[in-house]
Amino acid sequence: MIHYPSDSPARTVTVDLGQRSYPIYIGSDILGRFGEAFESHCGRRRAVIISDQTVWDLYGPTVEQSLRRANVETQAVSVPPGEKSKCLAMVEMIYGRLFEFSTERSDVIVALGGGVVGDLAGFVAATFKRGLPYVQVPSSLLAMVDSSIGGKTGINHPRGKNMIGAFHQPQMVFADCATLKTLPARELGCGLAETVKHGIIRDAAFFASLEANSQPILALEPDRLIELVERNCRIKAAVVSADEREAGLRGILNCGHTIGHALETVWASRGGDIHHGEAVSLGLVAAGRLALRRSLLRPDELERIRQLLGSFRLPVRIEPPGGPEAIPANADRAACALPGDLPEIPLATLYEAMRHDKKVQAGRIRFALPKSIGNCVFQDDLTESEIKQAISSLGE
Ligand code: GLY
Predict the structure, then answer these.
(1) In the predicted model, is pLDDT for residue 322 greater than 60?
(2) 112 within 8 A of 49, measured Cβ to Cβ
(3) Alpha helices of 48-172 — where are they, by DSSP H?
């Protein structure tokens, strides 16, 4: 049973997992009250805050002081910002610090940061001394609407993203939307891509509200942001509550990620500059094309998906060599494109990357495809040629 403080400054969403249920608090300028929520949900007296250097400099002292006001003793570890920190060497470094702090199983890890910190700190919490409780304090939109919820923790391996990990649910998620003011625009895009995905797979009304509100959202209007994060959290929480370990339904959250992950991995391995949200955006368009081919989606629905992604300044196609050098900040929707060299990345390389994805079952690539806007179905019988055509079409 979760007890919410009666004067809570935040909205709450519950991830319903029986004894392991936990609240997601969502508000604006609430970081100073983190200690109260910690006390009420964790009831522990020692915490280790894991953050990255950038986020720590911005918000670490506020979180630390708030915990101290609640009589919680704190220690802190910070890692360099960026995806490279999601590796085994960083996990070992953090284990070393936890031994130095004499961290016990009754202590709590606080993951303060974006998706990288959440996944890394969550993995440390899942494994140190066979498991410590942890809480997520997401400071990026991606982490607020997706990665901090649902207990997926992990690190990357040279052979693939998120290949080493564990399911370990947090005790609480505490999202202060005011932290989004300091988030770089491209990072905001990463969260917006997941937001569009949530609308496509689960909620047509939410998708329509995104179409109507893309400008206030991009302008970071506090009320819009709170509502945006809350609606995303409700969608994700419902999916996780129904299928915690991705035995079935949770796979719909992978919509756009099968092709998206392959693009991200191959592009990055060749020195290309691509962010997760940009890859997911392209992956959603490619998934839409596959759905169109299978008569699951109408052409006008695919166009709405492209328009919405474009209105959030996310790429919906890849420029052939010789195309524009960069995405202009005020890019026209239809012109949103990622400058790239897709035609020079052999389709066979991308296809091979997909075949090593975690979503492959019995050698078949399982796609979550939109079925109109607001629904999603699984398809595992797409041919190699259909998949390659959908990827190629991103260059058109
Ligand atoms: N981000 C996909 C999931 O949590 O299942």
Answers:
(1) no
(2) yes
(3) 53-69, 88-100, 115-127, 141-142
Confirm whether 11-183 and 202-395 share one CATH topology.
Answer: no
The verdict on the CB of residue 319 being under 6 Å from ligand 1 is no
DSSP β-bridge partners for residue 368:
378
Per domain, the residue ranges of the chain are 11-183, 202-395
pLDDT in tens, 219-239: 999 999 999 999 999 999 999
For 11-183, the fitting CATH number among 1.10.3720.10, 3.40.50.1970, 1.10.1660.10, 3.40.50.11810 is 3.40.50.1970
As a whole number of angstroms, the distance between CA 353 and CA 375 comes to 27
pTM of the model: 0.91
Is the per-residue pLDDT at 357 higher than 60? Answer: yes
**From atom 2 of ligand 1, which residue's Cα is the shortest distance away?**
253
pLDDT confidence of residue 58: 98
Q: What is the full DSSP assignment across 299-351? A: HHHHHHHHHHHHHTT---SEEPTTS-SS--TT--GGG--EE--GGGS-HHHHH
Give me ligand 1 centre to Cα 156, in Å: 15
Distance, first Cα to last Cα, the chain: 53
Please give the positions annotated as active site.
130, 152, 194, 236, 246, 250, 254, 257, 261, 276
User: What pLDDT score does 348 carry?
Assistant: 82
